[in-house]
Design brief:
By secondary structure, this protein is of the alpha/beta class. 29% of the residues lie in helices and 20% in strands. The protein is built from 9 helices and 10 strands. Strands 1, 2, 3, 4, 5, 6, 7, 8, 9 and 10 form a 10-stranded mixed beta sheet that branches. Strand 7 and strand 8 form a beta hairpin. The longest helix is centred in the last third of the chain and has 12 residues. The chain starts with a strand and ends in an 8-residue tail after the last helix.
Length: 291
């Protein structure tokens, strides 16, 4: 098992910042949605952010070293989780920060693969270790995070049952789907699938599987593919699924899709804030760091 979790929190949060009219949000919540990184929006009691709950689940899953990738204006993370660049103690977790710098000539960050590449350049020891990677605006369960730690596969991802995700169908239809072989090894990931291909992507149990960006990687295997990741021509970003698929071309069946059937709360847009708050009230009546 490994002890390292990298959390992607340096994105531009463009969809969260879109202007919408909602009567179930306070002025303070709208202001936070427009100004903060998504994982720092105060959806918990006393204004604590969603990231608290992800870190709690990471601790329950046994992670010890947390690397949070923040943007160039990410100082607010240090107000919540420690003022030093490295080795902050937050409820027994060792938290360090990596910065995703925006390349010259761009307005927005260069994608998830660029974020991870910049992080391992700033912490090169990760290139000799196994580590997990996930989003800051999704609340993955402790069980799912533990599954990434315990798998013997060099690379892996949580392969979610699409039908178990409690989102509107229109939203789910935009999620990337994964094609797995009979042993649940990854064959392909398809972004924005069309209805005519869905049947060909069902797994051996007839289930459509989606990735919610929860990965385990072998740092040594992944590094050259991170460094040389091509730019997606449609989204003009470097993306982690591309890195993983490119590594499989040379390294064979080394990425296991770990099947899970559960909901993953998500803070993508302002419309999600009230739903996530209700989810936390129901499932996390209190944050118990000593449990």
């Amino acid at each position: 098992m490994h002890d390292n979790l990298i959390i992607l929190a340096g994105g531009a949060s463009s969809r969260m910042k879109k202007q919408v009219s909602l009567d179930n949000l306070s002025e303070e919540e709208i202001a936070q949605a427009n100004e903060r990184s998504k994982g720092l929006i105060g959806v918990g009691p006393n204004g604590r952010p969603l990231l608290d709950y992800l870190l709690l689940n990471a601790k329950k899953a046994g992670y010890k070293n947390i690397y949070i990738i923040i943007g160039e204006q990410g100082d607010l993370f240090k107000e919540f989780y420690g003022s030093d660049d490295k080795n902050n103690d937050f409820h027994g977790l060792n938290i360090s920060f990596a910065v995703q710098y925006i390349p010259e000539g761009r307005v927005k960050p260069f994608g998830t693969a660029d974020a991870l590449f910049q992080a391992v350049e700033q912490y090169p020891e990760l290139n000799t270790l196994y580590y997990s990677v996930c989003n800051s605006d999704n609340l993955y369960s402790a069980k799912a995070l533990y599954a990434l730690r315990e798998t013997a596969s060099p690379n892996a991802f949580i392969s979610y049952n699409r039908d178990a995700l409690e989102f509107p169908l229109e939203r789910i239809s935009r999620f990337a789907i994964a094609k797995l072989d009979e042993n649940n090894c990854l064959l392909d990931i398809l972004e924005k699938p069309t209805a005519d291909v869905l049947d060909s992507y069902k797994d051996a149990e007839g289930i459509l599987r989606v990735s919610m960006n929860a990965f385990k990687f072998d740092g040594a295997i992944l590094y050259p593919y991170l460094k040389n990741c091509p730019v997606n021509p449609e989204r003009d970003e470097k993306e982690l699924p591309t890195v993983l698929l490119n590594s499989l071309k040379k390294n064979g069946n080394t990425a296991l899709g770990i099947p899970f059937s559960e909901h993953v709360p998500d803070l993508t847009a302002k419309e999600d804030i009230a739903e996530v708050k209700e989810y936390l009230k129901k499932h996390y009546p209190q944050l118990d760091w000593n449990a």
